Automatic annotation (TrEMBL):
<keyword id="KW-0393">Immunoglobulin domain</keyword>
<dbReference type="GO" id="GO:0002474">
    <property type="term" value="P:antigen processing and presentation of peptide antigen via MHC class I"/>
</dbReference>
<dbReference type="GO" id="GO:0005576">
    <property type="term" value="C:extracellular region"/>
</dbReference>
<dbReference type="InterPro" id="IPR003597">
    <property type="entry name" value="Ig_C1-set"/>
</dbReference>
<dbReference type="InterPro" id="IPR036179">
    <property type="entry name" value="Ig-like_dom_sf"/>
</dbReference>
<dbReference type="InterPro" id="IPR013783">
    <property type="entry name" value="Ig-like_fold"/>
</dbReference>
<keyword id="KW-0490">MHC I</keyword>
<dbReference type="InterPro" id="IPR007110">
    <property type="entry name" value="Ig-like_dom"/>
</dbReference>
<comment type="similarity">
    <text>Belongs to the beta-2-microglobulin family.</text>
</comment>
<keyword id="KW-0391">Immunity</keyword>
<dbReference type="InterPro" id="IPR003006">
    <property type="entry name" value="Ig/MHC_CS"/>
</dbReference>
<keyword id="KW-0732">Signal</keyword>
<protein>
    <recommendedName>
        <fullName>Beta-2-microglobulin</fullName>
    </recommendedName>
</protein>
<feature type="signal peptide">
    <location>
        <begin position="1"/>
        <end position="19"/>
    </location>
</feature>
<keyword id="KW-0964">Secreted</keyword>
<dbReference type="InterPro" id="IPR050160">
    <property type="entry name" value="MHC/Immunoglobulin"/>
</dbReference>
<feature type="domain" description="Ig-like">
    <location>
        <begin position="23"/>
        <end position="115"/>
    </location>
</feature>
């Protein structure tokens, strides 16, 4: 019973200290976007709580393979930060997005080339 009460108190305290915070999402490339030139697609997600989140880098609605994810980090106020990146070669007519699922909210954020 004491262990249950301790977990219940911790849960209440953690939610009262860190209310739900939606992610701030930035989608960009390492180099200026040029068609037919290899680049790195980056999706930086920050300021979110709780840490239960999924980040997918997509090309025309299909997840890009071999994407790398940083370790989950946090800042003051238990706001979390994650970055996912993948090597890609953009082609004219292709659509690149970062799909972020946080709780029950799913949003797509588009990468804009410089062309």
């Amino acid at each position: 019973v004491a262990v249950f009460l301790l977990f219940a108190m911790f849960g209440i305290m953690s939610f009262s200290v860190s209310p739900l915070a939606p992610p701030k999402v930035q989608v960009y490339s390492h180099n200026p976007g040029e068609f037919d030139q290899e680049n790195t697609l980056i999706c930086h997600v920050s300021g979110f709580h709780p840490p239960d989140i999924t980040i997918q880098l997509m090309k025309d609605g299909v997840e890009l393979p071999n994407a790398k994810l940083t370790d989950l980090a946090f800042k003051q106020g238990w706001r979390f930060v994650l970055t996912k990146h993948v090597t890609f070669t953009p082609r004219r007519g292709e659509k690149y997005t970062c799909k972020v699922t946080h709780g029950t909210t799913v949003r797509d954020y588009a990468w804009e080339s410089n062309m």
